[in-house]
Amino acid sequence: MKIAWGRFLLDFSRKTYVMGILNVTPDSFSDGGLHFDASRAVERGLRMVDEGADIIDVGGESTRPGSEPLPLAEELRRVVPVIASLSARVSVPISIDTYKAEVARRALDAGASIVNDISGLRFDRDLAKVAAERKVPLVIMHIKGSPKNMQKDPAYIDLIPEILDYLRGSISIALKAGLPEEMIVVDPGIGFGKTFDHNLEILDNLERFASLGRPVLVGPSRKAFIGKILGDAPAQERVFGTAAAVTAAILNGANIVRVHDVKEMAEVAKVADAIRKERVNSQD
Predict the structure, then answer these.
(1) Exposed end of the chain (fewer CB within 10 Å): N or C?
(2) pLDDT value, residue 153
(3) Cα(72)–Cα(153) distance, rounded to whole angstroms?
(4) What are the distances in angstroms from CA 188 to CA 144, 215, 261?
(5) In sequence order, what E strands does 24-118 have?
(6) In this predicted model, what pLDDT tens digit does every residue of 177-209 receive, in sequence order?
(7) Domain architecture of the chain: domains with CATH
C-alpha cells in the first residue's frame, strides 16, 4: 500500500513511518509551552527530522481532555509562520493537525501537505473539500464527543465495531467530497473518548482496522493509560512505556506512529519492523 502525491511518497510495504508531534501550544498535556515560540518550534521541527521523523505534525490547538476550542485567528497565528518556515527547510511532508477547514487551507498554502483531523470530518465537513481540492492525504480519527467532554465516562456497547463504523462514515464523507480513497489514512483515536481498558483493547485488536483497506495511524505517545500502567508516571517519564506501546502497535499492523520522542521511537520502529518482516517472511 502506498500514498503518492506531489513530490512525496509513503510506501507502507517498506517501513513504518514516524510522525513527530510539534505542538505550538501553551497547554498541551505533555509538552505545552515548550515550543510555543515560533523560532523554538522551528528548531524542534528541524531537530525531529535529524532524529528520524518522516512527517512533522504541527498543531496549534490543544486537544487534551477538558480543553476549550481555540479561536480561528489564534490557531492561524500559531501554526502558519511555523509551517512556512519549516516547509522551506525540510524535505519531509508537514501535516497540519486541525479540524477547521480554514486552518487547513491556510496551512496548505504555507507549505503543509497532509491534513490530520481528530474529528474524522465530524466537526467541519468542509475540511474534506479542502483535502480533495488540494489532492493531499487526510488522516481521519475516531473521537467520542469533543476534547472538552470526551473523557467523561466514555462508554461503548462494542468498542471495535463502533470505531470501525465511525471511520467508515468518515471515509464516506471524504469520498463524497471527491477525495480519492487512496489518500485516506485512519486512526482509531487512542485516548480520545476512551477508558484505560479501551486503549489497551484497541492496541490488542489493531489488526482489525486493516478491514478498512487504508493505512492505520496510531498515537499512543505519553498517553495517560501508559502513565497509569507505570504507577502514575508523569508524561515526561513515559518514554519506555511509549516504546512498548509503539512496538505493540507496529506488530499489530500500524503503518504510522505519532510520537513526541522521535529519536527513541524511530529506533523502536526499526526493530519492530524487522520483527514484523521476519514474521511475514516465515509465513510465506
Answers:
(1) C
(2) 85
(3) 29
(4) 11, 11, 21
(5) 55-59, 94-97, 114-117
(6) 999 999 999 999 999 999 999 999 999 999 999
(7) 2-283 (3.20.20.20)
DSSP strand pairing (2-5 vs 8-11): antiparallel
Count of alpha carbons within 13 Å of 270, Cβ hemisphere only? 9
C-alpha span between 201 and 72 (Å, rounded): 35
Strand order in the sheet with 17-23: 184-187, 138-141, 114-117, 94-97, 55-59, 17-23, 256-259, 217-218
H or E segment and range at residue 274: helix 262-283
Which DSSP letter does residue 240 get? H
Which positions are annotated as active-site residues? 223, 258
Task: Give the pLDDT confidence of 70-106 residue by residue, as tens digits.
Answer: 889 999 999 999 999 999 999 999 999 999 999 999 9
State the burial class of residue 236 (Cβ atoms within 10 Å of its Cβ: 0-12, 13-18, 19+).
exposed
